[in-house]
Structures
1.
Amino acid sequence: MKKKLHSLLFSATLLMGVAAHAQVRVEIAGVSGTQIPVAVAAFADESVAPDQISSIIRADLERSGVFKVIDARQAISDSASVDLGAFKASGADALVVGSVSRMPDGRFQVRYKLMDTVKQTQLSQLSDAVGARNTRLEGHRIADDIYEKLTGVRGIFSTRISYVKVNPGRGNHSYELVVADADGENEQIAAYGRESIFSPSWSPDGTKVAYVSLEKQKPIVYVQNLVTGQRQILSNEKGNNSAPAWSPDGTRLLLSLSKTGNTQIFIVNVDGSGLRRLTNGADIDTEGQFSGDGQTVYFVSNRSGGAQIYKMSVNGGQPTRVTFNGRENISPRISPDGKTLAWISQRDGVYCLYAMDLASGQEQRLAEGATEPSFSPNGKYIMYANKGGGRASLAVVSVDGRVKQRLSTQAGNIKEPSWGPFMK
């Protein structure tokens, strides 16, 4: 009899861990309505570092769909005198330059500048000393700075994502809860087992992931601390324990529990204390999600005869129906600013990703064959699971539907995505 494996392998930083077996490949399709032309030069002496930082920056900006990236075709140091007019004449509105040098202690000094070629001014600059394993992260941070300075919106390139990877085997599968960079690189295994793992959910501070595991032959909710490596059982009530979702302040979670018979929404403190039932219907209520301000809970209920999305006060009260179109509406997710609802709707026999402006009620269809949506922390993108060609993969779409990405791997299926928060 094969012994079950369950290894919680995170070390003291989020950038250390056990590498997963295969990295994720990103395919990009579509661009935003108006792209910002940016020239990115190779950083002076960047070959001394483990990662080519300028290449990471270019890939991030291109993946966003917001920028038209122009290759400067030369290495330009942040200390060099640059003819900005020449770059403006080539069609670039901004120029990225920088340098990398090895420090005596083995770290790398990374410097960068962002120049406005139209106004002939400097928009931003950074100078950081980073270890060898953090040079990729530094490239993402610079790309974040460029995104924010040129769009006014915080960048999400240095954030992390989690997902479940299902590895096929003879007679059985293995399941990995994986954490990776937002571009799918730098995969690390947070948990591993022979039984299903699903519904990962990030804490607001990015240090923990709650998830459900069947390792004890029933659904139990665990909280994994990604910094200390410690794991705790959050909920092991009678029946099913599922669908963990954090409050915006990180002090409580919503759970879907069947301890009373039919599945209902409960609230519990992060240490497992103070369990309180929120919904009290005779029907199934599940998949609870907090609003951005933590005062409203969105959830799925069949109280109208089919699965639809409702909302109610976190303090209780009468629920209000939110969705009316489509045979089945499930998996509600609220954007960080609380203005947009993303969910999965079954229409004409197809499960599609929709987004709704909550103020106007206007809906937009974003993708077909979608499940399990998750907003980026800046609210501009939605990651979801997609099954095409018999293999489960992840995809990303901008909230306006213009930019689409597909993340796939050569080995196994990847599903159950959850986009992590901004890291402080």
2.
Amino acid sequence: MAVLVTRSDERGGQLVNMLNKAGIVAIHLPLFSIEPGREINELPNKYKQLKSGDYIFAVSKNAVNYAVQTLKNTGFHWRSDLNYFTVGQRTAEYFASQTGQVILYPWQQENSEGVLSLPAMQKLNDKRILILRGNGGRELFPHKAHERGAEVDIVECYQRVPVNYNNEEQSSVCKRAGVNTIIVTSVEILTYLMDFVPKTDHNWLKNCRLITISRRIKQFALHFGWKNIVISPRADNQSLLQTLLQSE
């Protein structure tokens, strides 16, 4: 078995190392680089406008990284009179370690639907929610939060920028290496992967087993023509590794 890891940040490299230590051949092909978002400089002013009891929702570790650095550089401290949320446990732990604040997350369902099911998210009248995320992203949470009475503000803390490769050459390398499993952690990566791989190699691509992290991504993959799709219960590298090993 050979595995293609498409995760963009340092976690992609870490996952490759974990797979190699487990005796599995793995190739890291990050399709995006992570760069500062176009709205990151607006964060200090929007943060200052929050009133006591308002919410901050960080969608990912990358959003936390850029937000923490930006507020630090501008002399702001993370306020204890705000409520902090993330999608998943690992991002929550990281956010807490960087801010010293209590971070809430939906431990049973680590996605936007899970966040929306939290008791604190049911009645949002008079609440302002500042969402820290990358470019693009799902609109479900901001839409539903607005419907429930919240004033929603979004800051693009980082952006995913496509990495330039020789597409045909990279696809050929993966095929020659015997890649038969691909790890994809977002709809954006999956969609770009379909565009990245030449049409002549799509039969090979769709015959690969797909390891992913949500039913939403699985539905997109089914639409694109994948048949063999396995969902990891969580998005962290250890869970992805265990899912892969258990699905062999």
